[in-house]
Each structure stands twice: as structure tokens, then as C-alpha cells.
Queue: 2 jobs
Job 1
Amino acid sequence: MEDLFPIRRVDHIRHFVNNARSSAFYYQHTFGFDITGFYGLETGVKDEAGYLLEQNNLRVVFSAPLRPGHPMAEKIAYHGDFVQDIAFEVDDVDWAHATAVARGAKSAAEPHWVEDEHGRVRMAAIHTYGDVVHTLLNRDGYKGHFLPNFRPENQPGDSIGIKDVDHCVGNVELGKMNEWVKWYEDVLGFKNLISFDDKDISTDYTSLMSKVMASGNGRVKFPINEPAPGKKKSQIDEYLEFHGGAGVQHVALLTEDIVYTVSRLRARGVQFLSVPKTYYEMLTDRVGEIDEDIDVLADLGILVDRDDEGYLLQIFTKPTTDRPTLFYEIIHRKGAKSFGKGNFKALFESIEREQAVRGTL
Ligand code: FE2
């Protein structure tokens, strides 16, 4: 099938945060990232600072404003810490930007060169939902490590085996899901892989709808959620209220050994959503034989789901920010290309228990 908007990969995920130093330290010491780059006053950047964190193919940047009145500071004051950029590496930035804009995207930055003594990188950006952008970049021929103005850092973390980003999920306002689905189809040539309606994703109290969009080469997967009317406030409504509109709800991180990854995260104090023990009593009936020891999965709270192509294991952290907004999924795919539909009900009931404690159900 023709790829209408070739994207090589998610290049990096950038967060806007109040304090990039403490965010970098947290993700280094819990999720086991290496801190490999820094920019700020010491590298000649006068009004913001940031850190590059890496683990295998995954790159994450934390950026913070250094002065009051900085436009970033206003965004952070409004949203709290949030994912601001899901950056794409592309073959041709000028073509990608011009094509996206011609197909209806709003430009966030015109194509321009960013340079240092190691060479130059072509960059541009387009707006997507909320205050999130997609930077478009190409560093072919650039001799530096990441991007100009980043100084190399050598602060290794203790890896937990995260290999890459699997998918990034956006929450959008009621009635907006199909608009953003169409935007990803029209502008970036994405295809709708799977749709879930409120019959798939509902509990006694809340429901939501979701469509999974994938890039032409299938490497970039973006589920998009919107709330559906329920008896009580859905987790998507809670997100939209506390974030202040549409934004990135969770980032799913790919591992090839989920027992190891989750054991390390738990040992370092990361908290996860939990499901009742009865979930594991019914597990074999639901998913059949699996390689893992179910007692070990139950101890760690890891969930399992099966589709036509295989099975997957997954778990969700509690929000990693003060606001009940951003969280992470750890996912291990054993053939399955789906997203854990069989776990939705148990998960949402778990989220509702957390919401009840927060008084936001
Ligand atoms: Fe997910």
C-alpha cells in the first residue's frame, strides 16, 4: 500500500515540565534511562534547559523554562507537566511540512536549520490536538549525537529493558475523536486499524470510545479516545478537566521481558493499577496457555490478552504527575498486534476505584 506520508520513526517524545532536572532524575532512577544530553545556560541557551534520556531506541526529552513569562511557563502553569511533542524523523522536512499544511495542518514552525559545530539539522513542526505538536526533523549528515545545542552527558541509568515506544494515546473532547481520526488520515496518511465503541469499553459507570490510527508503514500507532456518556464521570472526562483540554494520556513502552521490567519498576517504587485476584483465576480460560507463570504475573499485577495472532502482556502505572493525567503502559507483545481489549473492563474498574479515592468519579 502506498505510504502517503513517510515517517521513519518517532524520533523522540518531549515533555514540558516545571523542573527538567528532577524529572530527568526521576525517570533515570525509576525507568532506568541513561541521561545522554543536556542544554541550558551552560550550552548558550538563555531561557530554557533540558535533558535527553535514552533507553535502546526510545528517546525522551524533558524541557523547562528558566525565566518567568516564558511561553513554555504559561503552558505548564495551565496543563501541568505534559507531553508537548511527539517528534517524527522524516526523509524530507520541507516536503513533509508543505504537504501537511496543504492537507490542512496548522504550522507550528516553518522549516528551518538548527546548527552547531557538528553540523545542522532541518526542523519544522505542525500542531495536532491540544497543545501537542509533531516536530518533523531530518539529521542526515549531522555529526553530533542528537540535536544541536545539546551537550553530551554520561549519566547511565540501570536499564529495565525498555526497547522502544509502542504507541501514544491521545484524549480528545467529546465529539472530537472522528475529527482527529480524519486529520490523521487526511494530513499524515494514517489508517484506522481498530475501533472500539462504548459497548466494548464500558463499565457500570463510565464509557469511552477509541480508534487506533497507524502510519503508512505501521511503525507509529496513535489510539485516540473520547469520552462517551456514562452514569458517572469517565476517566477521559477527568483527564480533560485536569489537563485543561486534549492531550497525551499515556505512552506505551515496549519490553521483551515484562516480568523483569515490572519487577524492577516495582522495586524502585513505581505504582501500578491493580486488578482483583479473581482476574487471574479466570485467566487461563480466557487466554489459554501462556509461557509465563501466572502466579508471577498475579504477584506483579501484569495483565494478559490474546488476539488472532498471539498474546500480549501489559500493565499501567498510576499517573506519574500530581494531576491525574499522564501515565505509562508497559507492553510485551508475543505475536499480538492489538491493544488489550479483553483487559479494558478490569482496567477501567481499577481506574474508577482510583477516581473514587480522588473524588472525581
Ligand atoms: Fe495503551
Note: The mean pLDDT is 94.
Job 2
Amino acid sequence: MLVSENVLLRPYNTFGINAQARYFSTFADLQQLQTVLQDTRWQSSPRMILGGGSNILFTKDFDGLVLKNELKGITLLKEDDDYIYVKAGAGEQWHRFVMYCIEHNYAGLENLSLIPGNVGASPMQNIGAYGVEIKDYCHEVEAWHLKDNALVTFGNADCAFGYRESVFKRKYKDQFVILSVTYRLLKQAHFNTSYGAIEQELQRMGVGELSIQAISQAVINIRSSKLPDPAAIGNAGSFFKNPTVDAAQYESLRTAHPNIVAYPVDNGYYKLAAGWLIEQCGWKGYRQNDAGVHAKQALVLVNYGNASGQEIYQLSQQVLDSVKEKFGVDLEREVNIV
Ligand code: FAD
Ligand code: EPU
């Protein structure tokens, strides 16, 4: 298997940052992964697994081995009266997998249409959109433990899924290579149209009878109208998480800013729309050189062409500082900083 040296990473990250990897290789099966890992030349170098590169900001060159996962395959494992278990290789494109499920009438993932990236990264931050998170349907994750050289299977509860969180992003960061994910999908759909503008979009589309196909198309339409296409403008989706505050802080914020956008979550806490906070600080549409804040969605930082990872990172720090100063709220970056 070919390991290349000093590889430019611009084609491999949706921010379009031109960092460089000291070593770069792909792997299409476990055997190939093991072969590369055993090579003594980079035994002491750091390693990172790359999927579609849609949730990463490279702020410097990577002085180690980048392993791009190309594990393919979608397999129907088993079914019972209610569920169907579908296993997908980590290197399958997420949206292609969602479309496959919709074509076969396997329900559950339709609200997660058009999220960029690969299946292997889907458990990393428990991807979510339009009222659904993968934790609702993820059955099992198969992963390779880099230090022990062993295959480990994680059940749903083992993954410690939370809002944009999992055991792979925190406790076991950089310890496992996710090889496949099995989803437990529904034979009988539970339509979820309550979030955001889905109902409105379905009406606009003139949908009479609800279906997972129609919901998927509505989500695709909404997403396309406000999120920048990485093929046109570099970005990694929401740069920050939506922050959670307690009831007392929410009440004082609401008194000072009656239009604040928030919704209640568990135990009396409130989730604030970070996009609103950032827009109120005047950032929406801001541009400095090639680093900017998207004009239609202030939660998305963009690279108009030749911004460096450092420039994007510095802009994110300015945004973070201004939200703290105006609202007293701490934003947390969602994107993985390398
Ligand atoms: P990468 O960016 O390649 O990797 C992300 C992290 O996971 C890195 O730390 C990497 O090392 C690690 N990793 C990747 N694959 C593996 C593996 N097989 N084993 C171990 N570690 C691995 N996210 C949402 O949740 N909801 C959204 O609605 C959403 N919308 C987006 C819209 C746009 C326009 C963009 C650009 C991004 C959006 N995202 C969204 C973020 C992104 O699409 C997801 O986080 C996606 O799951 C990242 O997948 P990836 O394959 O590109 O991961
Ligand atoms: N808003 C503004 N100004 C903005 C952006 C948003 O005021 O510039 C307010 C609006 O009131 C809007 C509300 O914030 O109604 C929510 O905005 P939106 O529906 O666009 O969702 P979001 O909270 O900004 C989250 C996820 C997205 C996901 C959408 C849809 C996070 C960090 N982001 O964004 O995920 O697609 O909901 O479910 O939770 C991602 O993770 O990369 C991502 C794109």
C-alpha cells in the first residue's frame, strides 16, 4: 500500500485549508490498516483518521500519519417484525447511505439527509439535525483499538452519546478507528416534522401524503437554502455548539434581550441559538481577507478561498470573545481543531 509524503490536504477537508500531512495513506480494509500501522517508519508519529474532512479545521501542518478511511459496503444484517439492521462501512458517504435507506423504505434517518461526511464519523459527534440524532437509531459501532490491536464492539449505551458528543470524541479520543456502524431502522416510519420549517416546506412542496421521501426532500431544500455548499465556499457546518444555560441565566438574558432565541431542554435548562447570539454581535456576513461569517447562517464560519486555518481560528476566537462580552455566554467550538 502506498504511503505518500508531504501531501497537501486541501482536497481532503471541506474548509479547503491547505495544510500538509507528513505522511498520508488510505485503507480499504482492516488488513490494509494493520499493514500501514505496523510500519516502523511512523511508529512514534501522531496518527489521525480522516473521513470526509467536513468537521475539521487544520490550523497547522500535521506532522504525522493521516489515514483516510475508505471502508465500503452496505449489508442487511437481520430483520424482525419492527426493525431492520443495516451495517455500513465507515467510508461510505453519509448522504448516500441515507438515500439507500430511503430507497429501501428503511425509516429513521430521513431528517439527517444531506449532512456531509462519512458513516464512520457519524457516531463521533452523534450527528444531528431537524429533531433527530443518530443516537436514536445507532445499534452498534465496530472499532479498532490502536494500542491493543483489537476489535471492540460498542453498543448504543457504550457510546455515551450526548448533544454533539460521544465517548469517541472525549474519553477515547484518538484511540479507536471506527470501522463500521450498524443502524437499527424502522419498518414502520415515525414521521418527525415538528422541527423548524419542515411543516412549512412540506406545504410549500404541496405534499399531500407524508412519506420519508418527502421529509428527506424538505430537509434537503431547507438545508440548501441556508447552509453554504462546501464545493462553492469552504466551511465545516456549525462552527460552535448551541450553548445551554440554566433557568436563572435564561431569565436574566430574556429580560435584557426579549427577542433571544431559546428552547427548553432537560432539567430546567435552556438551549440558546448561537446563530442568534453571533448575529446580534454584528458578525453575520463579516469578512476579513478570505475568512468570514456566512451571510445566511451566522453559526457557520467560511473560507472564501485562501484563508489559513489560523485566520479562521482567530476569527472564531473574536466571535467567542464578543458573545461572552455582550451576553456573558461561553460558546464552545463544535469543529475538531487540529
Ligand atoms: P471528518 O471531518 O473527516 O472527521 C471528524 C472527526 O472524526 C475527526 O476528529 C476525525 O479524526 C474523526 N474520525 C472520522 N472518521 C473516523 C473513523 N472512521 N474512526 C475514528 N475517528 C474518525 N454535523 C451535524 O451533526 N449536523 C449537521 O446538520 C451538519 N451539517 C453540516 C453542514 C455542512 C455544510 C458541513 C460542511 C458540515 C456539517 N456537519 C453537520 C458536520 C459534519 O458533516 C459531521 O460532523 C460529519 O459527521 C463529519 O464527517 P466526516 O467524515 O467529514 O468527518
Ligand atoms: N438564527 C439567527 N441568526 C442566524 C442563524 C440562526 O437568528 O444567523 C436563529 C434563528 O432564530 C433560527 C435559529 O437560530 O430559527 C436556529 O437556526 P437553525 O435552524 O439554522 O439551526 P441552528 O441551531 O443554527 C442546528 C445545528 C445544525 C443543524 C440545524 C438543524 C448545532 C450546533 N447546529 O443549527 O447542525 O443542521 O440545527 O437541525 O446544533 C452542524 O452541526 O454542523 C450543523 C449544521
Note: The chain has a mean pLDDT of 96.
